[in-house]
TrEMBL record, chain A:
One of its GO terms (molecular function) is ATP binding. It catalyses: L-glutamyl-tRNA(Gln) + L-glutamine + ATP + H2O = L-glutaminyl-tRNA(Gln) + L-glutamate + ADP + phosphate + H(+). Belongs to the amidase family. GatA subfamily. Pfam families: Amidase. It comes from Manganibacter manganicus. GO terms for biological process: translation. This is Glutamyl-tRNA(Gln) amidotransferase subunit A. Heterotrimer of A, B and C subunits. The active site is at 79 (charge relay system), 159 (charge relay system), 183 (acyl-ester intermediate). Hydrolyzes indole-3-acetamide (IAM) into indole-3-acetic acid (IAA). InterPro entries: Amidase (IPR000120), Amidase_CS (IPR020556), Amidase_dom (IPR023631), AS_sf (IPR036928), GatA (IPR004412).
Automatic annotation (TrEMBL), chain B:
This is Aspartyl/glutamyl-tRNA(Asn/Gln) amidotransferase subunit C. Pfam families: GatC. Belongs to the GatC family. It catalyses: L-glutamyl-tRNA(Gln) + L-glutamine + ATP + H2O = L-glutaminyl-tRNA(Gln) + L-glutamate + ADP + phosphate + H(+); L-aspartyl-tRNA(Asn) + L-glutamine + ATP + H2O = L-asparaginyl-tRNA(Asn) + L-glutamate + ADP + phosphate + 2 H(+). It comes from Manganibacter manganicus. Heterotrimer of A, B and C subunits. Allows the formation of correctly charged Asn-tRNA(Asn) or Gln-tRNA(Gln) through the transamidation of misacylated Asp-tRNA(Asn) or Glu-tRNA(Gln) in organisms which lack either or both of asparaginyl-tRNA or glutaminyl-tRNA synthetases. The reaction takes place in the presence of glutamine and ATP through an activated phospho-Asp-tRNA(Asn) or phospho-Glu-tRNA(Gln). Keywords: ATP-binding, Ligase, Nucleotide-binding, Protein biosynthesis, Transferase. GO terms for biological process: glutaminyl-tRNAGln biosynthesis via transamidation; regulation of translational fidelity; translation. The keyword ATP-binding applies. The keyword RNA-binding does not apply. GO terms for molecular function: asparaginyl-tRNA synthase (glutamine-hydrolyzing) activity; ATP binding; glutaminyl-tRNA synthase (glutamine-hydrolyzing) activity; transferase activity. HAMAP family: GatC. It comes from the Bacteria.
Amino acid sequence: MTDLTRLTIAQAREKLRAKEITAVELTDSYLAAIDAANPALNAYVAVTHDKARDMARASDARLAEGQGGALEGIPLGIKDLFATEGVHTQACSHVLDGFKPRYESTVSANLWADGAVMLGKLNMDEFAMGSSNETSYYGPVINPWRAESSNRQLVPGGSSGGSAAAVSAFLCSGATATDTGGSIRQPAAFTGTVGIKPTYGRCSRWGIAAFASSLDQAGPIARDVRDAAILLKSMASVDKKDTTSVDRPVPDYEAAIGRSLKGMKIGIPREYRVDGTPQEIEDLWRKGIDWLREAGAEIVDISLPHTKYALPAYYIVAPAEASSNLARYDGVRYGLRVPGKDIVDMYEKTRAAGFGREVKRRVMIGTYVLSAGYYDAYYLQAQKVRTLIKKDFEDVFAAGVDAILTPATPSAAFGIADEEMNADPVKMYLNDIFTVTVNMAGLPGIAVPGGLDANGLPLGLQLIGRPFDEETLFQTAHVIEQAAGTFQPPKWW
Amino acid sequence: MSVDLHTVKRVARLARIAVSEEEAGRMAGELNAILGFVEQLSEVDVTDVEPMTSVTLMEMKKRQDVVTDGAKASDIVANAPATEENFFLVPKVVE
């Protein structure tokens, strides 16, 4: 029998509708694959076997009646940041020990309403703070990709490292993820998968544990561009419960795939050529430019002059918002409580024990930059710079550019417990140098695999679009995918 | 600007995170590295630039000021470490 886990969402959808396979068979295949692989990869922090089989049976009943939603019977993994009713939801933090929400996030509720099946909760950096999935309370995720003839363990990227690893290793059909500075696109690039961060306001943030509210957006990680389009269509919605959710109908993203690039203008920003970028990344970028030109797009050089300030501005804005958002973890309403001699002592001990090192670091930075006397110098200055970063993009789009092509990351996946990155937090932060501008400006960005490096590790390209023009990103990313192909890691786990 | 041990302890107190002497020392180094990195923002000319308040141009959504939710006290306290009759229990705060 063929391995059902190898089917893309689009393929499984057809086979389920044609009754060539059942949702229970498909779900059981994934559950078996997870049980076999998870001890090696640590992609899941909770597997919901019974719930998955119940949901699959209900899907089969609907399919038998000729009914069913857009994702009927499709088994998905959910990042631990999304609230799932009655199921492990801890943002992979110790501080949320034992938390089982009494409600469902809007994004996951949308998926279940369309018939999807939940396989379990996916590992991630604690509160989505990290670029390697090493800050998780549940331990690091291991990238299914390894360098050729090497057994060295690599990171899958972060913070959505569990989502990217699970999709890449065939442990789910697709996964939800979130992106505050690159947390969908960087792990997608490190695992040869497709990840899209939609425009700020496209997916509801309701029921997603907040990290930096003005930057956080949910999006899918999938095996190919079409699957990402199918998933985003279901995840996105207009939601009364999130006042930043935008009142725009959700288009049929899949319909954009296959449209010609003729007459389209693709911008190549000169500021993304940074010192120290490996030659292979430069070469990949050039290849991407050639593919789009050959497909009929016009290539134009553009300038985004404030690019280099995006990362420093991010490391003021995001920690500032995080320090406020994480104030709620106080040992009173949910999760961990460490007793103290009085209430303040209890707060301080609970937060000291409950937060990991990176989370503490960011809460401290945020508290500092918002504290009396420093607000103007740091936070206000950063928000002004953010206005300039957004204006850079607006100017380029006003000049007729339809999408911008850049590398997704400055390197391929690096090793677990990389000494240089562990010694210097700023080195780790530089992973997001190409992705973070997009969050600062609220724009959509997609990472799509472009090829493998000399060691056989995946490298990704990024496309950045106009606000709410995810369709152009799917259309253009599909052209890259057609030229580059798709990439699967050799199975060793 | 650089932070010293005293500042780290003051900020930790504001953030309600207990830190040991050793942790405070390590954090001072890390925070200074990050603050050194963000320092470059001061070279940007922001004359007449408005600080960003929203990335998307949209009007603030409003709704009727009516009760739309409630009667969920048991759900709200369900995940709390210590409760009694739908109240959160905390250490004594008033003598």
